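Internal tracking record. Fields below are filled automatically when a chain is submitted to the structure queue. Please do not edit lines marked as system-generated. If the sequence contains nonstandard residues, flag them in the REMARKS field before resubmitting.
Queue: standard
Priority: normal
Entity type: single polypeptide chain
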Amino acid sequence: MNIKTLTGILQNDLSLLACPRCGQPFSLNGGSLRCNGNHCYDLAAKGYVNLAPQRDQSKEKYDAALFESRSVVLESGFYAPVLEAVAQLLSARFGDAPFSLLDAGCGEGYYARSLAGRFPQSRVIGIDLSRDGILAAARKPGNVLWLVADLKQLPLGDERIDVVLDVLTPASYDAFRRVLKPGGELIKVIPDSDYLCEIRSAFQPYLRQEGYSNRQVLEHLGKHAQILEQREVRSTLPLTPEQASAFLRMTPMGFSVPEAVLEETRLDEITLHLQVIRCRFGDE
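SYSTEM-GENERATED OUTPUT FOLLOWS
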């Protein structure tokens, strides 16, 4: 995405945004976003806005190499059933009506970009704290506003968004509740017990737990929101050597694994086991 395209998207989406430092609305001033509190953020020539410029990203584990691996996996279609489940929930809720969607923790932008294409009448914003992730997202075409920002300090006004999408990302429920319109919904995607079980087995000596349970995640979610609908997505699919390497390098389970072990590990298949959950805050 170039800066001209970014400027056009910002002109349409400006009313949704607010300064993450003071909460004041933004105006588009040449090549910058400037709020009423006089905080200024420059538009990046590569097609995004960095609203967390003070953050040191030099030691981030979610780096360009990880997002390259994620792109290999995502573009190979392994998570297409998750995307389809989310799209079905959106279609059932909105039909052909326009809506606004925040992809919170969007990474390289697979879901935001795909949904913007599927629902061209929608307004889609992708936010991630990793600049490398947003850079990867902005390289590909799509009618999405890409922002580097902290999910705990979302650069959005109160009650501006119809749907928050949170895929395999730690949630900030207070922030999500603030930006959602009355009756707005959260679609949260979490792992289930057999998610990437082949990798968990291969990396077991380097992991703190032998198995995985999403019980605590569901209990925590239930304390903040009403679960309206839950869909299971499960498949076990064969892997090429390139896809296997990408899976091993994209998951946080590999962060503490020595490089030699990553190189030596072989996978022939992978299990995707997730829950797609539709939620609503409050008593609406």
